[in-house]
Amino acid sequence: MSFPEVTAANVAEVLHNDRMVIAGVDVDGQLRGKLMKKSKFLSIATGGFGFCSIIFGWDQQDTGYPKELAICNEENGYRDLIAVPDLSSFRRIRWENKVPFFLLSFLDPDTQEPVCACPRGLLKNATAKVEAAGPPADMFAAEYEFGHFRIPGDSFSPERAASGITSFIQNNSVDSLPSLTEGMFGYSMTRSLHSENYHDGILDACEQFRCNIEEWRAKSGPGAFEACSEAKDMADKASLCKYVVKAYGIKHGITPCFMAKPRHELPGNGGHMNISLITADGKSAFTRDTPDPSPPYPDVAHLSDLGRQFLTGLLVGLPDIMPLFAPTINSYKRLVEDLWAPNTVSWGLEHRAAFIRLITPPTANANATRFEIRVPGADANPHFVFAAIIALGWRGVEKKLEIPVPPLPKGEDMSSSSDKSMPLAKALKEAVATFTRLDSVAREVFGDSFVEHFGGTREYKIQLWEQAVTD
């Protein structure tokens, strides 16, 4: 579906509705926004408007962080930020009478620069370094695994969808919430028929909302599915895809679950990200014209020098940015051995137990050479994930780093606990301590302000967990 290019000159003519939706992304990857009259929007479309900074001072349940963070605190009076609509992000929300929709970016009112924790701003700053060096440009693909649960009972109406799920969870064990489908049927050709209107609606809506899903398949697990897409502006589209899935779930009595590990006996939900750098002539910058006859490891025979340096940057920096890939207490329940969810700094050619799965010839076409980053879960903020991948990989290129560990072995010795691989943090507390230490790579590539803010938000999650008494 084609959309007109919206600019400051034509925005009034393009917007036929009397109201529109505008939304920004918070640190947990949630959309935070409001409805706005067309007349008000036209007055702020280019200069921006005041938006309360509290969205960077709340957790996912709108509880204020007890630690005063720089963006939003008593000293600055919980002041407004400058929210600037991105006119190029124009879409229409099909399921809300095709109301126009725009994404926001948040600027510091004093400096007019992106707020340190603004997800879109962090990614923009990370990609700017690559763009400043000239070609290549980045190309991402996202793969989200997520479960589906349904409202118990035979009767359903959209009006009681959200309240029905909430009421059931409040009065019953979460484990008793029924899955949309039962059994382990990965790549099943019939699972989606159980809720055909729901699945078809999501695919159509994503296409019309400019966050196309290229592949949709049943994953191994009750109610489990995976959606894949590839495009520029992938972080925006990944966030919006989650929004579409949740919105359509409400209309069908279904609650999608992007939690990293919803149930202990089942596989977790990954948020795998694929990255490639593309040259000006459209070729992969990660591949060689001819295989290297004497590579340091056979697995990188088809990988260019730039590709090897980018790979190394990711391997070296991963331990220091783990909270961006695994941001919750629950995230680390997924990263365990023998479930294709890596818990080490590891890599390997076509190796699904490794942190980085290299996809090169002969498996892939040379121009499809890429890295699949397998640590992030479906619960991670895609803007932070992509920003970390770009920042760490390009750091490896700039410093011409060399691969620090051999490829993860396959066969009987393929366990992620191989002594040739460096272990990753096993819990959020350990990960945050590494992320926030004074000499962390995270501070080098993202700056102290972001690390202190995001680290502070994670410390609150740790505090809540340490105080909790569970069943």
UniProtKB/TrEMBL annotation:
An example Gene Ontology biological process: glutamine biosynthetic process
Entry keyword set: ATP-binding, Ligase, Nucleotide-binding
GO molecular function, one term: ATP binding
Pfam families: Gln-synt_C (PF00120)
Gene3D superfamilies in the cross-refs: Glutamine synthetase, N-terminal domain, Glutamine synthetase/guanido kinase, catalytic domain
PROSITE patterns, alphabetized: GS_CATALYTIC (PS51987)
Occurrences of domain GS catalytic (ranges): 119-471
Coiled coil, from the record: none
PANTHER family listed in its UniProt record: GAMMA-GLUTAMYLPUTRESCINE SYNTHETASE, TYPE-1 GLUTAMINE SYNTHETASE 2
Family of the protein in this entry: Belongs to the glutamine synthetase family.
Protein name: Glutamine synthetase
Lineage: Eukaryota, Fungi, Dikarya, Ascomycota, Pezizomycotina
